[in-house]
Write a structure and sequence with these properties.
The longest helix has 26 residues, at about 85-110. By secondary structure, this protein is mainly alpha-helical. The chain folds into 2 domains: about 5-70, Tetracycline Repressor, domain 2; about 70-200, Tetracycline Repressor, domain 2 (Orthogonal Bundle). The chain starts with a helix and ends with a helix. The protein has helices at about 5, 15-30, 35-45, 50-55, 60-70, 85-110, 115-125, 130-145, 155-180, 185-200. Helix 4 (about 50-55) packs across helix 5 (about 60-70).
Length: about 200
């Protein structure tokens, strides 16, 4: 039976969102190699035919999960006239960490399959996804604060933004890679130190 024939008519049991959720859960629990459409269907509470109806095959299913998990990061833009630099940096750090915590498992899983890895990279290129987007958003905020005299003028706004993004990346990925949070400084300490460094010289 061709994929076109599989997709005719109504889906055997529906449940597209449930299938995507179940796939992501199984990826995190078991990894790519042990993921099967039968287990996904069982976890989602649908028939295996529903998986094929919605996604055609295992590759289509995994690609859909990647695209769902790696939608471009949209930071909640902070008003440019916000004076509380520490609160703003804290908010941005938390937003980026939450995003990465939810998506890093998918990114790591894709590396075990060359075809899926290439598909993921193509998707990221199509939507212009990457850390540069978060860096650009934060750098824009820092630049405005420099103009207002809240942040010292002799620092590079993009470097400061990179520091915030890289710190959030460490918080999200290190526990998954090494199994502990050793070496990760408390967020409050990081923010306090960074904002102290950014204060204009008296």
């Amino acid at each position: 039976m061709t994929s076109t024939e599989k997709r005719r008519g109504r889906p055997p049991s529906g449940g597209r969102e449930e299938i995507l959720k179940a796939t992501l859960e199984l990826l995190r629990e078991r990894g790519m190699a042990r993921l099967t459409t039968r287990e996904v269907a069982s976890r989602a509470g649908v028939s295996e035919g529903s998986v094929f109806y919605h996604f055609e095959d295992r590759f289509g299913l995994l690609k859909a999960v990647f695209e769902r998990s790696l939608e471009p990061l949209h930071l909640q833009m902070t008003p440019s006239d916000a004076d509380d630099l520490a609160a703003t940096v804290t908010q941005l750090s938390e937003v980026i960490e939450r995003f990465l915590t939810a998506s890093v498992d998918v990114m790591m899983a894709a590396q075990s399959d060359a075809e899926l890895r290439d598909a993921l990279h193509a998707f990221m290129a199509d939507v212009d996804y990457g850390p540069h987007r978060g860096i650009a958003s934060i750098a824009g905020y820092v630049a405005v604060q420099q103009q207002r005299g809240i942040v010292r003028a002799d620092v590079d706004a993009k470097v400061i933004a990179s520091i915030v993004v890289n710190d959030a990346f460490q918080r999200a990925t290190v526990p998954k890679l090494v199994g502990n949070r050793k070496g990760i400084q408390p967020r409050a300490t990081f923010v306090e130190t960074l904002t102290a460094m950014l204060q204009p010289k008296s």
